Amino acid sequence: MLVRLTIIPCERTNEVNVTPTIGRIHPLKQFPTNMRGGCRVAISGTPGTGKTTISTILKDEGLNVLALEKIAEKYDCLGELDTSDNSKPIDIGLLISKLKEDWSIMPENITIIDGHLSHLLPCDQTIILRCKPDILEKRLERRGYSKEKIQGNVEWELIGGPWNDNENTSDWLELDTTELNQNSIKELILKWIADDFKPTAIDTDIDWIAAMEE
């Protein structure tokens, strides 16, 4: 199965406010002893929900971060750039099969896997970032996405995003990033890890369609 990965230039926006962290404690010291040996945590969500921004902040906090594109490139599962939509196809099925053996060994540290398909990989835990469809649409417009691509991503978010791929094989953490600032999202994730990845859910608590009908 080939899935296209769009390459987006890194950009700074004013979508959310950043609250400085005062008296920061190194997050690795907060984690349970049994978790300090390492595990893989996927951060997934529809494009525009804040995955890479939050992953970068977590990297600054001391966590290892790997981009899905780089992983696919390493395992020779990344295709050539398609100039028609500025995307590279990932053979996600092949990548999963190659990772099963290598990833059967836990990493030395907690490792974040950043990418909107990362929830499909054999990770130990999964974080799903969500965003209200109307706000998401504005974010993607600022990225210069085509109308067709914006519509596809907004519709995907509207019906649940990555939850459509959840086979109930593991519990997920879901965060609505629409109004939360970056620091709040970071703190929620670090607290979740420190609490031994609790609480989690087996289904989404967010229903954008129902919210629109209220």
Strand content: 15-25%
CATH topology: Rossmann fold
Distance between the termini: 38 Å
- Label the structural class: alpha/beta
Count of domain modules: 1
Mean pLDDT over the full residue set: 82
Order of helices and strands: EEHEHEHEEHHEHH
Largest beta sheet: strand ordering: 3-5-2-6-7
How would you name the CATH homologous superfamily?
P-loop containing nucleotide triphosphate hydrolases
CATH class: Alpha Beta
Count of β-strands: 7
State the helicity in percent bands.
25-40%
Characterize the overall form. globular
Q: What this model shows, in words?
A:
The protein has 214 residues and is an alpha/beta fold. It has one domain: Rossmann fold, CATH 3.40.50.300. It contains seven helices and seven strands, in the order E-E-H-E-H-E-H-E-E-H-H-E-H-H. The longest helix has 13 residues, at 182-194. 29% of the residues are buried.
Q: Secondary-structure blueprint of this entry?
A:
Elements: E1 2-6, E2 39-45, H1 51-60, E3 64-67, H2 68-74, E4 87-91, H3 92-102, E5 110-114, E6 125-130, H4 133-142, H5 147-158, E7 172-176, H6 182-194, H7 208-213
Parallel strand pairs: 2-5, 2-6, 3-5, 6-7
Antiparallel strand pairs: 1-4
Helix pairs in contact: 1-6, 4-5
Quick synopsis:
It is built from seven helices and seven strands; from the N terminus they run ββαβαβαββααβαα. It has helices at 51-60, 68-74, 92-102, 133-142, 147-158, 182-194, 208-213; strands at residues 2-6, 39-45, 64-67, 87-91, 110-114, 125-130, 172-176.
Q: What are the main properties of this structure?
A:
alpha/beta, five-stranded parallel beta sheet, 32% helix, Rossmann fold, two-stranded antiparallel sheet, 7 helices, 214 residues
